[in-house]
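Notebook entry, structure prediction.
Reason for the run: the old model in the group folder had no record of what sequence produced it. Starting over properly, with the input documented here first.
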Amino acid sequence: MTFKSILGLSTAFCALSVGAAYAQSAPQAAASTDVVEEVVVTGFRKSLQAAIAVKRSETSIVDAISAEDIADFPDLNLADSLQRVPGVQIDRDGGEGRSINVRGLSSDFVRVRLDGLEALATTGGRDGGRANRNRGFDFNVFASELFNSIKVRKSQEASVNEGSLGATVDLQTARPFDYPGFVLAMGTQASYNDLTEGTDPRGTFLVSNRWMDGRLGTLFSAAYSKRKTFEEGASSVGFRVPGDHLCVPTRVAGVITSYVNASSCYQSVGTITKADGTTVTGLAAQEAAWGAAHPRIPRYGRIGYDRERLGLTGAVQFDVSDKTRLTFDTLYAKLDQNRSEEFVEIISPARETGVQGFRAMDLVSGTIGPNRTLIKATFDDVDARSEQRIDILSTTFFQNSLGLTHEFSDRLRLNALYGVSRAIGRNPQQTTVSFDRHDVDGYSYDFTDKNHPGMNYGFDVNNPANWALMSSNAAGDASIIRLRPNKTVNSYETGEFDVTYDLTDAITVKGGLSRKKFGFSVHEIRKAVEGVPATALAKLAAEGKTIADYSTRVTNFGKGLDVPAGTPLSWVIPDIYKLDALIGFSCNCVNSYGDFRLTPFNGEVRNVTETSTGGFVQADFRTELMDMPVRGNLGVRYVETEVDATGILGAAPLNLKHKYDDTLPALNLSIEPRENLMVRFAAAKVMARPALNQLTPGGSVSRGVSETTLTVGNPFLAPIRANNYDVSVEWYPYQGALFSVALFRKEISSYVQTTRQAMLFSDTGFPDSILPVGVLPSDTVIFTSSQNTPGGNLNGYEITLQTPFTFLPGPFDKFGGLFNYTKVDSAIDYIVNTTTGALSRQPIVGQSPKSWSATLYYENGPFEARVSGTYRDEYLTRVPTLYGNDVDGKADALNVDMSMSYDLSKNFTISFEGINLTDQFDERWTNSTDEFMLNYEHTGREFVVGIRYKF
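New structure, fully documented this time:
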């Protein structure tokens, strides 16, 4: 059935309902009016009941989370709370929930509103360090205690601004009129991480009061925390099969005579043991190695996160009269991070085309496993590297808004809202320094257990004398001093108003206008030549300085990793601050040690302004149909979007403009066929705009540790458009209980795909003038671009079971539980070769086929406790990927948390929490058939004790 036919039938049904509503002489209740004995509940059970009440009262399909108490949200992290909502999964970064997926759609398709205004808060993490450049909201910027409630709107209403395919998430801070009078709450906590073996503080404060007979109220809240975590483990930076990626055999008269000593091939191959146990040499061994996957940069490492988070909210509410209310909200958040990366690695396999890279490697012996992987190998002539990277990251977010509500009469009402927000992501230091050692013989690895590889580097990696800071690339890569400070700004300015008129007691019509201006800008400067200046080395030598004078060590590595015996658990790394103190490379100048000037990097000097102007009309109705209470809404939203994008190609700035419009009808129906049973239906046309980093024109080449990339933007991208359908059945059998089943379908008609393909730069068609120093036209680059592609269908269902166990005999009647399960299936045709147009049908990136969440809680008087488990099935993170592989993905994960608290009195509460009790590893892979390891890392368990006071 098409969208038009479904919407037509639904409109007809609405017309019948509206007609019935006109015929009624008295308003009809939408829910049962039976009197229920009030039972006072507190804590977690109270928050669950409040969430059920919100869900039941909404006309559209909504899930909610409410605070357990004043300034006391159920979890330390907003994303961790959201993962208990049916259909919501989260992604973690450095042990913290950062972004969310809703019903199989990633954070790019989820819109977030703060106090009613769309906003975007971003920060940096392991995905490049700097602030993310897409539309995904980073929830770890904010402390959860700043918020009073969260709503996840899964179906669209015309009165709700456009921009989401997955859901609209409403985050609401506390306001003074939420409380009857004076309230004061404060708390302090201490958290311990068993991997870092350190303790960190956390504190909250809220005060609110009302004056002038309750007509004026003010509120202030604050939350502060520090947190230090490690992410330790193994990684590979991808696997590559030489025969699938650039290594072309040598042929004589059409006959293959060699698989080695050519570009992107091994220099030589000795003895190979094949998967069937046979041992081969010569051409047979070469062929076996040619067809076997090897890790590109096999390594162990530690990523450190040192975070300091401050959040402040303020609100003033004033009832000018009994018909007019003004509300002012302000929100400030600051997240400072010191992030470090410390690796010891082999880099030659990632230098596929370099004469001194992969082509210089001698594969002395190797074993090929059943999944065509070179699981064990010994090499000569490899290049080893030790590196340290330090990022200083700071995200500052603020939002101010002013809202007005006014009743002109009993039937006519006005609601207006204006606000501005800005998120500034600063990365003033992004510095990488490496030590190197060329042509190492006797290096070996053992990936028999792919997540716990053994490594023997062939020399003592703990001895500073075995490493060098070098400027020459004659025998391999020169050491690097990489400087890339940058800044990202996201801003919103929004103005909107709507007018609501009660046409009858059963029918309400509303309409409104809105204008939203979204600004995005980035600016990055770089050291033009990343190699170490020869003058610096000469002067350091003249001063008698050695590696020992500007190095440090990684120590106490490997706790809980089960690293194979013989693999080093400590190693020498550069000490960035010691080296900077000696040669002053952070001066942005030319000094006696070399040229350390920073200049703008054209590929990251760009901005986009996106202006959307729209309006809507909507009718809300309540009626009865065959003695069944019916309510719903039907409306349409029209919006025009203008894109003004600026970027740089080579040295020439480009400014391009694009404009498109959307007409978006929406319908929501709720029928109560019997008491406490609701059936809902929703249908809507929806759209989500492309990520802003995809819209900037121009192109740039960037040389990284493992690859050289050419990135090109496309300001003419159309939005992702879809028709959404939802059906749900909800049963509320008794207080605090909910049993529901929801079906959903998203017919995605257009999609935006980022394609990545390895090719020679000379084949891309871009001018050589944009190449940085050290990159040649004959070098292989990863060509990344975005384009509109056909979409596909996404189907799924959610099951929710939630109940207190009051029907059981004591003491089991004090328990309760909630469980939800989500199943999603999708298919998109991805372009895997931009030259041939070859396609691959895969699920939507970020979509887990299955996920569930379960919580068992207990409340008895002053004591309460709960344990929660959340499971997310494996999912794809990139399609297509590189080096002869089809996809990248992330393995399934189960996270278990617990908490308990005890009320010492009506004012004081003590608490204890355990987070990530199973120390779940972050496991990522490449290649859907073989699932070669990309990384396998963990962050440890966390334990939190605290005390709260409220008055």
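Summary: Helices lie at 3-23, 43-57, 78-82, 282-290, 534-542, 576-583.
The old model has been moved to the deprecated folder.
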